[in-house]
Design brief:
The protein is an alpha+beta fold. It has two domains: 94 residues, Orthogonal Bundle (Helix Hairpins), CATH 1.10.287; 314 residues, Bira Bifunctional Protein, Domain 2 (BirA Bifunctional Protein, domain 2). The chain is built from 13 helices and 16 strands. Helix 3 runs antiparallel to helix 4. It is elongated, with a radius of gyration of 26 Å.
Length: 432
């Protein structure tokens, strides 16, 4: 959430930026409740002081009845006041949590995702001298994808992946894990993009697949709840992406400045209802209830936060280039970046079977918005304590990554050529 002092100092800016992101919030109401809350806090403190003074007087010999009566009155008044304060603070927190993060100045203002801006195209769209097939047509013909039996077992939007498609997925996982944990690769990315940041590699993580309600909410990734899977009779949810359980793992912790940044590459099977998208992208394995992802997470000092964002985007682009997949980069508009985000970038791969670009990656910069509720902080060298900045970014989704490989590397015989960088992880196979 935002710093309440920033909202007090900039109410018009906060109201306007929230509107640009599509959030109907009432900043004036929040500030009214905030004023009332501060007055109640001050009065409660006065009552506690009076209570303490009264208690000190009664220690000196046998107290007079007037002191006893005064003490009882203060106790009753304080109890009533603290109840009112508790109710006011609960209302204040609800209103404060509704305020979205402030978008950075370079975020385009737009009302729908259609106003996202294509900032770069890399590689020419793949073309063939035959009619390109979709990944679903190829995978089903090869026996790699079985949605019919999955529907029997689990319902719609699930699939059994089989054979070489499974091997391809695990080859991609190992390839990316190797790259992101490689000092040489990290140094290369930093040098090529003229970044002045730490060259610490990413630490591979296998996180829990479940997250407690309060931490999911603190990450501001729980909503919309109808898109999440709740564990019945438990204070737990199935996470919707690895960063949900990576960013929250350091809640209530204080790091020494020299220990930052923390960089994680997490692999997780994730779960989403995909509510409201019935009939959309149902072919193959594009939009499933269960999917695997490799996700990057970074925790840094404030001044390094934006460069960490650029660093992660550079990694995403490099991976696409190494795989030889044409792509375009989108700067997301205010309505599409998400509530906790200050900036968001999408990468879309060219899919010749669909004759269009489709999203494969996102990169999200949250500034200190998540850290404020998580209470994840850093102790600077001068002893001061500040909130950290968080970033997350897709390394590669393990449904859409293989989809892009299958469609861009298909042959007229219906086979798939393996990108050269993946062949060592496929036992040297050149095609499947």
């Amino acid at each position: 959430m935002l710093d309440i002092q920033f909202i007090r100092d900039n109410p018009e800016v906060v109201q306007e930026k929230a509107k640009q992101k599509g959030y109907d919030v009432d900043v004036a109401k929040l500030l009214g409740v905030d004023k009332n809350r501060r007055e109640l806090l001050a009065h409660a403190e006065d009552l506690r002081q009076k209570r303490n003074e009264n208690a000190a007087k009664m220690k000196n010999g046998k107290p007079e009845q007037s002191l006893i009566d005064e003490g009882k009155q203060i106790k009753v008044e304080l109890a009533e006041h603290e109840t009112l304060l508790k109710e006011t603070e609960a209302e204040w927190l609800v209103l404060l949590k509704q305020i979205p993060n402030i978008p950075l100045d370079d975020v385009p203002v737009g009302e729908t995702e259609d106003e996202n801006v294509v900032s770069k195209k890399v590689g020419e769209p793949t073309t063939f001298d035959f009619e390109a097939k979709t990944h679903a047509q190829i995978a089903e013909a090869k026996g790699w994808l079985d949605k019919e039996r999955a529907a029997k077992v689990s319902g719609s939007r699930f699939a059994y992946l089989k054979g070489d498609l499974v091997r391809l997925q695990f080859a991609i996982i190992q390839f990316i894990m190797d790259k992101l944990s490689s000092q040489e690769f990290i140094d290369e990315i930093i040098h090529e993009n003229s970044l002045t940041i730490s060259n610490k590699p990413f630490l591979p993580i296998l996180p829990p697949y479940m997250i407690r309600t309060e931490l999911y909410d603190a990450m501001d990734r729980l909503e919309p709840r109808d898109d999440r899977y709740k564990i019945e009779d438990e204070n737990l949810w199935l996470q919707g992406s690895a960063e949900h359980v990576l960013g929250s793992m350091h809640a209530d912790e204080v790091f020494a400045e020299q220990d930052l940044p923390l960089r994680y590459i997490g692999y997780a099977t994730s779960f989403r209802r995909e509510a409201g998208t019935y009939g959309k992208d149902m072919e193959g394995m594009f939009r499933m209830h269960q999917f695997d992802k490799l996700e990057m997470e970074s925790l840094s000092v404030a001044e390094a936060g934006f460069d960490e964002h650029l660093f992660m985007i550079a990694i995403q682009e490099k991976i696409m280039q190494l795989l030889g997949i044409p792509y375009q980069v989108l700067t997301k508009c205010t309505a599409d970046i998400g509530k906790p985000n200050a900036r968001g970038i999408d990468i879309e791969a060219w899919l010749p079977g669909q004759h269009t670009y489709r999203e494969t990656h996102t990169a999200d910069f949250m500034t200190d918005y998540q850290a404020r509720r998580l209470k994840t902080r850093v102790r600077r060298e001068d002893g001061s304590i500040e909130l950290i900045h968080t970033n997350d970014a897709t390394a590669l989704p393990l449904s859409r990554g293989p989809i892009a490989v299958i469609e861009n590397y298909q042959t007229t015989e219906g086979d798939v050529v393996i990108p050269e960088v993946l062949r060592p992880y496929m036992g040297g196979k050149e095609r499947i």
